[in-house]
Amino acid sequence: AIANNTEYGLTGAVITNNRDHIEKAREDFHVGNLYFNRGCTGAIVGYQPFGGFNMSGTDSKAGGPDYLALHMQAKTTSETL
C-alpha cells in the first residue's frame, strides 16, 4: 500500500463506503492505529491503546499489555541449595 511507503507508522485513515477497501486497508496498512471514516487523531490512552511502528514508536501500545515489557529487564538467576 502507498501508505506504507514511509519510515513512519503512527496512524492511518481511510474514507470509503466500500467494505472491500476497508478490509484491504485493515490487512495491508502497517500503522499503530487505523481509523475508518473519521479523522485520524484523537486516541485516548487508557481507553484506546496507542502506539506506532517503525520511526513512530516501539511496535507496542501505550496502555496495552505489551507496553509493560518495555520497562522490564529479562533476567535468569539460579542458586544451588
TrEMBL record:
Q: Which Pfam families match?
A: Aldedh
User: For this UniProt entry, which residues form the secretion signal?
Assistant: none
Q: Which InterPro entries match?
A: Ald_DH/histidinol_DH (IPR016161), Ald_DH_C (IPR016163), Ald_DH_N (IPR016162), Aldehyde_DH_dom (IPR015590), Proline_metab_enzyme (IPR050485)
Give the GO terms filed under biological process for this record: L-proline catabolic process to L-glutamate
Example of a GO cellular component annotation carried by this entry = cytoplasmic side of plasma membrane
Which molecular function term from Gene Ontology is one that the record holds? L-glutamate gamma-semialdehyde dehydrogenase activity
Q: Which SUPFAM superfamilies does UniProt cross-reference here?
A: ALDH-like
Question: Superkingdom of the source?
Answer: Bacteria
* UniProt keyword annotations, A-Z: NAD, Oxidoreductase
Q: Which residues form the Aldehyde dehydrogenase domain?
A: 1-76
What PANTHER family does the record point to?
A: DELTA-1-PYRROLINE-5-CARBOXYLATE DEHYDROGENASE 1, ISOFORM A-RELATED, DELTA-1-PYRROLINE-5-CARBOXYLATE DEHYDROGENASE 2, ISOFORM A-RELATED
Q: What is this protein called?
A: Aldehyde dehydrogenase family protein
Which organism is the protein's source?
A: Xenorhabdus szentirmaii
